[in-house]
Every structure is written in C-alpha cells, then in structure tokens.
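[Automated response] Your request has been received and processed.

Submitted sequence:
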Amino acid sequence: MWPFHDFYFFGMHLIWWIVFCIVVIWIFITPYDIPGQRRRPDSPLDTLKRRLASGDISEDEYWHLKRILENE
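Generated structure:
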C-alpha cells in the first residue's frame, strides 16, 4: 500500500486532494458573466445595431452610418 501510507497520498493528505479537486472543478463551472465584473465595452457597430433594433434609426441611416464606420 505504497501510495496510502498513514493516510497520505503522494505526500499530501487525502483531504487536501479532495479540496484541491473541488477548487479546480469550481473554477471551471463558475460562470464568466459575474455581476460587477468588468465587461468589454460595445463597439460602435454593436451600438449601431442596437439602435436599429430599437427603432431609433431607420434602415437607410443604419447603412449610411455603417459605411462611415467601416471606412474609418
């Protein structure tokens, strides 16, 4: 019983292996969109799409402003 000598597993107490595994699993299943976390600001094109979807601008204005943004 080489790896389980005196309740140790490769030099680390078995409970610490369990804690380590729980922490690693918790890191991978934590959602990335945590409230209060910094978010990437929207690009001007994203803002333009949102304004078109909400009805703030017409489709003609959208295409005109999109051409302007793509040329810059």
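Summary generated for your ticket: The two ends are 69 Å apart (CA to CA). The longest helix spans residues 14-29.
If you did not submit this request, please reply to this message.
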